[in-house]
Amino acid sequence: MLTNRDYTSMIQFMTTLDWRSEHLEQLIQKGLSERFGLHNSMCWRTDQEQNMYDLKFYNTAKPFNQAYQSFYMSKDLMHPKNYG
To answer: What's this model's pTM, rounded to 2 decimal places?
Structure first.
């Protein structure tokens, strides 16, 4: 369960981001690693049809990246097409 301190830390993190940055995903991933110890992550964008694209992996091994994209991506519970 998250504490008030956790929520405060998340809000502080979100308010420090430059939301117009061309490198927003990298800033988020680096911040998640530094502030919250989430050293491995991935971010993606979606189009109007809920297709994922422009995946950005952070601190993950190439075999993981390839396996995710070729097999697991369509089964990912967080994939936009798997909820809604």
So the answer is: 0.78
